[in-house]
Amino acid sequence: MSYHFVFGSYVASHLLIRIRIPDPINNIKELSIADQRVFVHEYIHFLQNISGGFGVAHIWSTYDQLRQLVYEQQKTNGDIEIPVRSDNANTQRFFMRSLTAIAGDKYLPEAIDDGSAKVVHISLKPDESYDKLVPNSGMRFLKLKIKDDKNNEADYLFGDTAVTETMAYLIEKKFFGEDTINNFPYRACQKVGEYLGSNLVDNDEYLFALCDVAILSSYPGRMFYQVLLKMHQEEFVPSKAEEIYEFGINYLYDNGWRVWDDFKSSKDGAMIVFNDLIQSPFFKNTVEWFKYVIESGFVSRYNNPYFMLQLYRENDPYSGMWENAMKQFGTPQIHNYHEHRFFRPPHELQELQDIEPLYLLALQQINNTLMYGKTECGLVKCCGNSFNGNTDDRCSTSPWVRAKDEKTCAYGSLWKLYGFSDRAVIVEEAK
To answer: What is the pLDDT of residue 242?
Structure first.
């Protein structure tokens, strides 16, 4: 079982790190070495999310889905039926399923021995949801055939998850040493390189750079494979890791992938959509924080494509470029096991009051209500511990009614903002 599955996680697009420890987090440096290891791993995922092509596209898509659902309901009167079954909602479900194809698998099936598993074949496959959304695109996703030493076989969809987890583990390994951890996804990129017979994946810094180049694209799994394959075919031997970035970015442009234009479009779209979702003076500073972080991620990457590589090269994760990154980006919201929270805003925004990252998670809960018909708000424990302590049984059965309370919650505040307070919610009966 994976160490990080047990002790930490990052919630993509909602800027949340979870570290499963019982004590409140007041200072990262005061954590145990094991927990610092988890933090570094998950903080890299945060940086990948805000400074990578697919990461920012995922942020844009996540919030745009909710925006479309909210706008659609605002144009109607009467009851709100959940889950929403409109054509628009069904299209959004297809779209989110297509994003899971880009993300790919995380772990191997339990029937496969991860320790002896290796790649025995690579092919490109279509995705049904993606093809319905973008007919005739010809887009294909990377499928690995995996076999263990007992000849058990399984398919593994190699995507963004494999690339970002390999990259995060490499930087964790650099600072804290080797760990007993699953090969898939944490060494998945190395396994692909071994299948191709590439020596580049034997060098951790080169492998880190390859992963980092891949996440600049909208399809990291496929791009990792194609760039590495091209390097192997041309017998490309870099003298330093920066040359891997140059080769990879040039390859992407040569094949019609507009790295910086696509990245900027996603960044601009994400900021517009988020602003539309919580456009109110009450949320002003939270919106400013979100937009600042997303813009900073893009600017940092555009001005210095190697900044993640420079983080990798530091002697420790608390000085030099790391110290600069922590000042520039701050931290996302960090929750411990009991949902007590820690948050450090970017240095430039330290004077801003009332930044409340919890509203990002409240947006997620409202999306779950409209899109999937969920009647329980997943923030009950968090709100009870650290927001305003004002929770009750309604939070687990009908959180939308909290919008009428004088002292409401994050979910209720947004539900009220959208003008849904006086509308009845009809929950579809389970079939």
So the answer is: 98
CA–CA dist 167, 340 (Å, integer): 28
> Chain-centre distance of CA 77, in angstroms?
35
Instruction: Tell me: pLDDT of 5 over 50.
Output: no
The rounded distance, in Å, linking the Cα atoms of 43 and 339 is 18
Query: In terms of DSSP bridges, do strands 16-19 and 341-342 run parallel, antiparallel, or are they unpaired?
Result: unpaired
Express each pLDDT in 181-219 by its tens digit: 999 999 999 999 999 999 999 999 999 999 999 999 999
Taken as a whole, the chain contains a residue count of 431
Residue 129 burial class via C-beta count within 10 angstroms: exposed 0-12, middle 13-18, buried 19 and up: middle
Pairing mode, strands 80-82 and 425-427 = parallel
Taking alpha carbons only, the member of 290, 310, 336 closest to residue 39 is: 336
| C-alpha to C-alpha distance for 326 and 334, rounded to whole angstroms | 14
pTM: 0.95
Query: Quick one: tokens of 392?
Result: 């009750």
HEC string of 68-100 equals: HHHHHHHCCCCCEEECCCCHHHHHHHHHHHHHH
